[in-house]
Amino acid sequence: MKPSAPTSTASLLVVLSALAAVQGVEVGCKQYDSWSGNGYHLINNLWGMAQASSGSQCLVLHSGGGGGGGVAWDTTWAWRGGDSDVKSYDYSGIDVSPKPVSQIRSLPTSASWSYNSTAGLNADVSYDLFTAADRNHATSSGDYELMIWLAKFGSISPIGGSPIVHKVNIAGHNWDLYSGGGSQHTYSFVACDGPLTSFSGDVMDFFTWLQHNQGYPASSQYLTTYQFGTEAFTGGPALFSVGHWSASVN
């Protein structure tokens, strides 16, 4: 008898675990399971899982930021239903002491990552940073959101739907800029030459461009979060691996 595709959460987890061929420390498979250490943190951020008809996701830590070396981790996931809805954003972040964006000298970062397969995936690989006028604003949102998409797979698009500016050159690459949102305004830079599986640059260059070209109020906004991960919509089982990610606020 031909085996049927796994449909339960338990059977999906078996498939996902088999995809993770390297050893690591499991952070967890539950919503908001987390790890923190050495100024870094990881979160199994399944914030949109209620929009899925089925699915699951697990997060594994491989190295944890000792000696300023950044973090390495992976996440395995499969989601069905709600094609246009984000199910999760598993990410690594750094601990941020809120600081006015205008007083930040640099936001250096480097990232290397891979997907085992992108066939049938609706997903992106992105930086996500929030800023707010209130330095004590919740870190899960902000007045402004800056996203930097190193890759997008499938039919998804950032908030705004279509670019407002094409081929902005920042950090040695060209980006299309999307803009939209309500009480939280989101700017999304999408790599024209993506996927960028290796990236090094200064994220402050994106804020500076927005300040000069879109009227972003850097002097009245505090940086509250600095994150990197993958937004999962639908598809999988898939394995997203971060071989290295590091970042700092100067």
From TrEMBL:
**Keyword set, alphabetical order:** Carbohydrate metabolism, Glycosidase, Hydrolase, Polysaccharide degradation, Signal
| Recorded coiled-coil stretches | none
Q: Which InterPro entries match?
A: ConA-like_dom_sf, GH11/12, GH12
What span is annotated as the signal peptide, if there is one? 1-24
Name the GO terms of the biological process aspect.
polysaccharide catabolic process
Q: Cite a single GO MF annotation.
A: cellulase activity
State the similarity comment.
Answer: Belongs to the glycosyl hydrolase 12 (cellulase H) family.
Recorded hits in PANTHER family, A to Z, give:
BLR1656 PROTEIN, PUTATIVE-RELATED
Protein name (record)? Uncharacterized protein
- Organism annotation: Phyllachora maydis
